[in-house]
Amino acid sequence: MPQKPARCYTKRRSKAFSGPPYTRKEYIHGVPPPKIQKFVMGNPHGDYDYIVEVYVTERGQIRHNALEAARVAVHKYLSTTIGDQNYFFRVRVYPHHVLRENKMMAFAGADRLQEGMRQAFGKPVGTAARVYPGQAVLEVRVKKEHLDHAKEALRRGASKLPLPSRIRVIPLKEEAKAAA
């Protein structure tokens, strides 16, 4: 069954979501597991010069399959261009928030079978990560010679995310800070 668009889970007002996140999985039956396979990739023990990260500029929810699509795009580009031992990549958010959907029937005579908005709590259909402005979603650590490849990889990954995002470069060493 196809997924509903993001507008079904967001408000039109300035607030992207209201209320606390719906996360208590011990009380929720049938929550599908997140599609994200790995949160940490590459070489975590390398000596890197820069952190390049994607951060969001608006408040909102990022579904688990959007995070997985961004992860796959970034990891594939980095592993083919600079190799697995030359970067450290991490997904910084976890999809804790459970999304629910009150499924409606869409065929002739459905109005006699379903209850409409009566008891419209909904069944769990997926999970999402709630993010706030300035919060980093994806992070790559690289050496100076691979900085442009990291920016391009994160640009490709950011295009998979449903929120407007930007890329920032943070130098880790003093000589990199002086050059920046």
Write the layout of secondary structure elements.
Elements: E1 40-42, E2 50-56, E3 60-63, H1 64-81, E4 87-91, E5 97-101, E6 123-131, E7 136-142, H2 147-158, E8 165-171, H3 174-179
Antiparallel strand pairs: 1-4, 2-7, 2-8, 3-6, 4-7, 5-6
Helix pairs in contact: 1-2
GO molecular function, one term: structural constituent of ribosome
Pfam families: Ribosomal_L16
Keywords: Ribonucleoprotein, Ribosomal protein
Provide a descriptive summary of the structure in words.
- This protein has helices at residues 64-81, 147-158, 174-179, and strands spanning 40-42, 50-56, 60-63, 87-91, 97-101, 123-131, 136-142, 165-171.
- The chain contains three helices and eight strands, in the order E-E-E-H-E-E-E-E-H-E-H.
- The protein has one domain (32-104, 116-179): Alpha-Beta Complex (Aldehyde Oxidoreductase, domain 3).
- The chain is an alpha+beta fold.
- It is 20% helix and 26% strand.
- It has a five-stranded antiparallel sheet. A three-stranded antiparallel sheet has the order 3-6-5.
CATH architecture: Alpha-Beta Complex
Biggest sheet strand order reads: 1-4-7-2-8
* Rounded Rg: 20 Å
**CATH C-level category:** Alpha Beta
Q: What count of helical segments does DSSP give?
A: 3
What structural class should be given to the helix and strand makeup?
alpha+beta
Concise structural overview:
The chain is α+β, with helices and mostly antiparallel strands and 180 residues long.
From the structure above, extract its key features.
alpha+beta, Ribosomal_uL16, 8 strands, 20% helix, single chain, ribosomal protein, Large ribosomal subunit protein uL16, 180 residues, Ribosomal_uL16_arc
